[in-house]
Amino acid sequence: MRPLRAPALAVLALAGAFFLSGCADLGYYWQSANGHLDILRAAKPVPEWLADPAVGAPLKAKLELAQRIRRFASSELGLPDNASYTSYADLHRPAAVWNVVAAPPYSLTLKSWCFPVAGCVGYRGYYDEAAAKTEAEAQKTNGLEVAVYPVPAYSTLGWMNWAGGDPLLSTFIGYPEGELARLVFHELAHQVLYVSGDTVFNESYATAVERIGGAMWLQREAGEAARAEYAQFNAQRQDFRALALNTRRALTQVYESPEAKAKDWTKVEAQKQAAMADFRERYAALKTGWTGPRQNAYDGWVARANNAAFGAQGAYDDLVPSFEALFEREGRDWPRFYTAVRRIAALPTTEERRSALQAATGILHTHARQGRTHDDNGDHGA
Questions:
Q1: Alpha-carbon span 125 to 135, nearest angstrom
Q2: pTM to 2 decimals?
């Protein structure tokens, strides 16, 4: 990354705050700016890391792999060929940001925070974990269920490529080969298109790109060991996603039940707890068939699962089958696929986009939604 003067870096970080996490209040805006600024300061071009004798061989191997993945993204997947992921930053912490998500006690609809460029999104990001937990406690006092989860990477949607782009980060560079490829493809997919205010559309589209692209990478470029490692964990991931989807459907039925419409919250709560207990029992049974070093990867998520956690997961999963079907309909041709997605993305409302996606693929989307709660306490930034 070319060195920037401090004022230019500050402007860059402030601009980044608008579309990364928003500016609901001055303190929040300032932490967003400083957090992104710290990442930019830490980033150096990959060749500098590779030339440094103090850098260990394992990190150098990962950085070289990431450059191969980066080139594959552009040459084979039609993703942008720019400065992103050609630099690296060691953050000395386990996550790039921590996201806070919140939902009512009897709904999977996420609370929204509205920002200038990103529009209304169902999360609020913090570069400091303690600050994220403080925000979570504040949301709990409003009667919401809350989840805080680490985010290894985020996209600046291509706006920062003039300054060096999004760097590779220590928070994900150590991922297994298949997972590293998927993450890079996901974040670059956001640079192809982004729909302001439609988290489910954006994340499901990018997740479809990462899944399809990741499978192509493993088939064409990876060795047998990397394919076997990926296959083992991906089978567990698919099992878990299927279980979580079934649980989201069960919870949605509870929250749309006659008892809920009658506001008989005692009965609704009992039904909700029964669905959550069934989820945890089925997860325990599912795990008995898993092996390998990542057998317990979902234990923490399951232990803390609530409406907010399920709502956030739905944003990444719910429309993925539709986008995968759209890719097949377009002849597995990446330019045609992106053109088709852009056409749908250009529609003015969420409902029109869902209808167009359904018409193109014949696949109904699930009930999980992203938007304001019925007692919206959302912050509306500058």
A1: 10
A2: 0.86
